[in-house]
């Protein structure tokens, strides 16, 4: 596909808006007109009303599992059409490798949250943050926490450098959480976001209004938000500071999450010498972060902190790499660095570089043979990779506060490791920092001090290098965000990101009531005992609270001896009468895993049936000892159910978690755990 028309359109209230040209958007490679924004104003009242009245009920008619399944289908749909997106992304000046981060990185994040949602969230719209806590002596008044959809709208304001990844990494968790999204991409590269949203809309997979797109200004959108809404922002720290004090957001306490550009650092530890693998890794990492995406990454290395004794060696190695970096039209073979996103960005980086150059040395830059290759590149937004040197970084505030958002990095020297960590902290909060060392003690020292100032820390050495994703790569399963200058926000981080869009509430009541509220059995609540063994039921037939109280079994010495012979576990507590008398138990006791096995023997239904397999154990605790002559009994209760949907690679099934309590003849709990089983669904006629 190509861009649908010279005039980009917004997707508002289920229809495409815009036909009159306004601002022209130009290729970063050759300056040619790529697209134009639309002049029509957007009715954000209509947009929000559509999201609340139509999209929100449609999303909440689905559960976490179902929304995650839709996300997977959407990711598959986009991946099959990625080449069209690569063609459009080239206008931003990105190389194929740069666009891979944006396009397939964004789609990969959809896949990741689809998988995490299916694996970790319930088949409902309530997440129970248990366990429940007794609030009374009899155990009939308890408290717990639940997470529920906020019943609002998520507004995502994104940066220009990753128009797809930035949109999808926010959309994925908010969609799973059940929030309709209004996305406002940065105007300069909004043609990429529009192309992606057109594909999403054409897929027909999402409920109407689940994703709306704003091309151009956000108008009075923030002024119209309610307490249940959420705003997320990616961009400059200055813009974040302006937006977060919007009077309506402050008055209504609307959550505002900011991920801002920061002066990230990489530290070469004092144990590394030229010729060490770590020395080469450091140089390679700094060079990659300068050249990838032409340095337009919020996670790029802006400050490279090195021992004073090694600065010449590091500078020489970096100059050599930079001199070999071919800059120009990404369509030309061999080009490794493209352009900045726009002429405006080119001017801004030049202005910031001039500030950084005052009082510092330029070790490599435009004077060193900078000549972008390709037709018409003179009208493009190319910028020379530039390496500076600051020899007194403790007293030069500019290198810790001025960011040139392009292929610009500053080497700075330190005399001892404490000084290196002090320099790292002068960034006043960063998204990510790297420490390159092969000494565990130095790594531990660095993390202890630097973690307070960074959202993520990469410890890089020769062992991690073959699998390392690199300094500048946010991952769906790890937190992205940082303190202070970096915005103080948090994105991604696995299922944590979904929970950012949910509302936490403390709930108090009886175990029976909490079971009904959470959809998860709470001990002490009412159970349902029937003549049919729970393991004889298909997944659809099992209900939370279905329970079985087993017959009893008295543990004999022969049981202990036989289990020891089978398992090879001859621990003295089980076999040495004399030694066992001197312990806190005063006698021989049964193996904990024998108790576990004996309990399974009590509650398992052995004949073939709907239960397909044991999926694992959670929360196992051996609470009290079981001695020879003690009698045990088990209670098995359905704790929660997770519908895994119908997958082509396996029979229809779900996961059932069973609460197991093993007690002795005095009614005392001796073992407690959850057992997970795969349970087949009823065969279709």
Describe the structure.
It is a single chain. Strands 14-15-16-13-12-17-18 form a seven-stranded mixed sheet, sandwiched between helices. By secondary structure, the chain is α/β, with parallel strands linked by helices. The protein has three domains: 198 residues, 3-Layer(aba) Sandwich (Aldehyde Dehydrogenase, Chain A, domain 1); 222 residues, Aldehyde Dehydrogenase, Chain A, domain 2 (3-Layer(aba) Sandwich); 154 residues, Thiol Ester Dehydrase, Chain A. Strand 7, helix 5 and strand 8 form a beta-alpha-beta unit. It is globular, with a radius of gyration of 30 Å. The two termini are 43 Å apart. The chain is built from 20 helices and 28 strands. Helices cover 32% and strands 24% of the residues.
Describe what is shown at a glance.
The protein is of the alpha/beta class and 685 residues long. The chain folds into three domains: 43-132 and 153-260, Aldehyde Dehydrogenase, Chain A, domain 1; 265-486, Aldehyde Dehydrogenase, Chain A, domain 2, CATH 3.40.309.10; 527-680, Thiol Ester Dehydrase, Chain A, CATH 3.10.129.10. The longest helix has 25 residues, at 96-120.
